[in-house]
Amino acid sequence: MWNNLTGHVPLEIGKITSLRLLLLNGNKFTGSLPPELGNLQNLNRLQVDENSITGSVPSSFGNLRSIKHLHFNNNTITGEIPVELSKLTNLAHLILDNNNLTGTLPLELVQLPSLTILQLDNNNFDGSEIPEAYGTFPRLVKLSLRNCGLQGSIPDLSMIQNLSYLDLSWNKLTGTIPESKLSDKMTTIELSNNDLTGSIPPSFSELGSLQLLSLENNSLSGSVPAEIWQNKSFENKKLQVDLRNNNFSDATGNLRTPDNVTLYLRGNPICKSTSIPIVKQFFQYICGEKIQTTTDSNTPCSNVSCPFENVQVSPGICFCTAPLSIDYRLKSPSFYFFTPYIKHQFIQYITSSLELETHQLAIDRFVDENKVRLRMYLKLVPKGKMKFNKDEVIRIRNRFMSWSFNKTDFFGPYELLDFPLKGPYGSVIAATVLSVSATLLYVRKRREKTHTFTKKRVFREISREIEGVKKFSFVELSDATNGFDSSTLIGRGSYGKVYKGILPNKTEVAIKRGEETSLQSEKEFLNEIDLLSRLHHRNLVSLLGYSSDIGEQMLVYEYMPNGNVRDWLSVVLHYDAANAMDTLSFSMRSHVALGSAKGILYLHTEANPPVIHRDIKTSNILLDCQLHAKVADFGLSRLAPAFGEGDVEPAHVSTVVRGTPGYLDPEYFMTQQLTVKSDVYSFGVVLLELLTGMHPFFEGTHIIREARMAYECGTVLSVADSRMGQYSPDKVKKLAELALWCCEDRPETRPPMSKVVKELEGICQSVLEPDMFSETTKLLCTKTSPSSSTSVPSPLSLLPGSDLDSGFFHTVKPR
Fold it and tell me: What pLDDT is recorded for position 574?
């Protein structure tokens, strides 16, 4: 795991029937999972998460009778969840989030007697309902179905006695919240961004372990029940109640909250009430104008001379020692806040599993990864001496590698991201071998490539600078582009020239080569890469690697064969109908708009830290081989200030303008400030382009002016692109209304991207997703040999003077 391995998962692994652990996560594997892996009757754990796996989950995996952990998250796996998985009686963790799964939620999964974690976030079960039987899981601790396109009502889950984490947010759920009391162990209830109605169930006031109650952006009404936090002990606890943007008009009890309870009510009628004094008294907090914050402060270790490192294991206690540093991640914890009390429990859990004392573990820092995963940087210190001996290092490292920690549903599964052995521990490297490495070495031996693989694995483990992306040498990228030959040049943008490259494993990539005026200091460039390596969403173009060799700075992205939206909208203007390439129907345009909006929303709200794109335009929205939209060219974006806990919009960013005329927020010219609302304005222009097919500046006028005049005159259909085929006039009007809302002159009157996404989901709801996989795109989705003589003409050649600002357009075959 985490070795930057490429290629397909070897089907020969399926012959190693004694194999117990197969850990391929955090690599660059492509292709589908081989059905032969279903022959591994003794396999306990299968992890292929955070790769680029495609295809469906093989039904043969239902034969893995010993399997306890299936972790396939963060890939591009398609198809339905095979019902055969319901035969896995030992399965405890089924983690499939962040893929492209479709179909319905299998009813048969309730037959899994040992299942404790079911995590399916960010998939495409559009129109599927949550089966009522899901309320009968016998041992489930975590049910996470965030952003899956689910409809219908929430089933009664009160019979699941151990349930502590429930996330059904960002779906299309309707009806009321079930009244029955949930498990006393419940820490997290995330039901935001649905269409729920009714009131908050009184039973929520009986949940003493609750950390988060998130119900924002629904249509709930009635009274805010202060009993949720009143008359309860919150020692060592923290509670956040988020009720923003509903229809609450009253309150039962006193809305004044303890210091460790945070209440958000912005966007409810109660915030305008004059009959509730406590609202007026605490308006600036509960109605969103100020943020309640708490800080933890520890006195740092004094600057005492130490040959190794001063490590603080608790306030006021520091050791001069050579620690073992560990990069560790909880993949699916069943809590929301990592409170001091939970931190203490975690330290006891780790040290008891390692047979160490609690003062030998320090949590250097931890990073909350979108409330889904918790990444921690741990330091272990020896007892009564300055460094561990060799046997201790091997024992501790092997304990992490072998998943032999004490079993816990509360902390859930973990993964070891890095265990570097540096300084006095450098000589121990040769004595520590991962079980997965031994497995892969066995397979590679059969392919007579053992020595090369072993050498590369050790080198990468020691020298890797930034995780999640590959560091290329100048020579590698030069070879991929035939010495940056002009025949591989596919565009030029503000950063520099863009080349199409082919890596040794036949992967096609787009290489952005920075010009001298774009170069940053080494530190700035690597900081930018470190940020980009953490941005992962199906609607963002993925950064695969970088190079900072011999004074060059280059970015390596996935190759997008269907070019950008601007060229699809423009090319037919210069071609006669008989020779025109495929055009985008209204259905296609609607889904392109929704996909790109989701990518921008991720940048604004889920990236850590948040990112303002600053140059959203149709030429920066690229289409993959199935015409799915991906936002590009945010590689040189500046960081946005982080949102507060109440999702209050951040302060402004002042910077040199990087936007494009026609898309740039007019407020910028007065304030010299860019915010997330500047991105919303630019996206509004994109929506108008999709609707009209026009450029922002068209025949001496601006697209916003033309569309607004037509809308106000009731003739918006007159500016609709005639090439969109059949469409619903009501849908076109709604899209125009949304676009013009985004393009309001005053930033505060524009909607947030979360609202834009919700509106577009409504527009797309009755518009069936088009069969984008046409004959044209089938050609481009079929990988051909780089030496193939087949040439697919680019529509850029049809556009005189196009300089390809985004630098990512490639080829689309005309009919």
Answer: 37
Q: Is the peptide bond before 609 cis (omega within 30 degrees of 0)?
A: yes
Q: Show Cβ contacts of residue 256 under 8 Å, excluding neighbours closer than 6 positions.
A: 278, 281, 282
Q: Find, among 682, 802, 796, the residue nearest to 743 by Cα.
A: 682
Q: What is the pLDDT of residue 525?
A: 80
Domain boundaries for CATH 1.10.510.10 within the chain: 565-798
Which tokens is 561 given?
Answer: 């064969």
- The correct CATH number of 309-432 out of 1.10.287.110, 3.30.565.10, 3.30.70.150, 3.30.1780.10 is 3.30.70.150
Asked if 693 and 721 touch (Cβ cutoff 8 Å), the reply is yes
At 39, give phi and psi (nearest 5°). Answer: -85, -5
Q: Write out the H or E segment, with its range, that includes residue 570.
A: helix 565-570
Structure token pair of residue 129 = 């309902």
The two tokens of residue 69 are 């952990």
How high is the pLDDT of residue 575?
Answer: 36
CA 557 to chain centre: 17
Burial 740-772 (b: 16+ CB within 10 A, else e): bbbbeeebeebbbbbbbbbbbbebbeebeebeb
Got the DSSP string for 261-297?
EEEE-TTSGGGG-SS-HHHHHTHHHHTSSS-------
Task: Give the pLDDT score at 456.
Answer: 32
CA–CA gap between residue 48 and residue 24 (Å, rounded) = 5
Instruction: Give pLDDT < 70 ranges for the chain.
Output: 1-3, 231-236, 274-285, 288-308, 310-319, 337, 340-341, 369-372, 384, 402-404, 406-407, 422-424, 426-465, 494, 516-520, 571-582, 635-658, 699-700, 766-815
From the candidates 615, 624, 633, 647, give the one annotated as an active-site residue. Answer: 615
- Rounded CA separation 395/33 (Å): 33
Q: pLDDT at position 699, please?
A: 66
Identify the residue whose tokens are 């596919």.
Answer: 490
Strands 117-119 and 93-95: parallel
Rounded to the nearest angstrom, the gap between the alpha carbon of residue 188 and the centroid of all alpha carbons in its chain is 20
> To which H or E segment does residue 399 belong?
helix 390-401
Q: Provide the 8-state DSSP code for 611.
A: B
Burial of residue 427, with CB atoms counted within 10 A of its CB: 0-12 exposed, 13-18 middle, 19 or more buried: exposed
Secondary structure percentages of the chain, helix, strand, coil, to 5: 30, 20, 50
Instruction: Note the CATH architecture for domain 470-558.
Output: 2-Layer Sandwich (3.30)
Output phi, psi for 780, to 5 deg: -75, -25
Q: What is the pLDDT of residue 465?
A: 55
Residue with tokens 């040498």: 473
Please check if 15 is assigned to a binding site: no
Give the other-Cβ count within 10 Å of 267's Cβ. 17
Instruction: State which fold the 565-798 domain adopts.
Output: Transferase(Phosphotransferase); domain 1 (1.10.510)
Could you tell me which of 309, 292, 636 has the C-alpha nearest to residue 494? 636
Beta strands in 649-726 (DSSP E): 697-698, 701-702
pLDDT for res 228: 87
User: Could you tell me which of 261, 255, 203, 214 has the C-alpha nearest to residue 237?
Assistant: 261
Is 615 tagged catalytic? Answer: yes
Q: Are 242 and 215 in contact (CB under 8 A)?
A: yes
pTM of the model: 0.49
Q: Which residue ranges does the chain devote to CATH 3.30.70.150?
A: 309-432
Packed helices 753-765 and 586-605: angle between N→C axes, nearest 10 degrees: 150
Pairing of strands 508-514, 496-502: antiparallel
Q: How far apart are CA 200 and CA 185, in angstroms?
A: 19
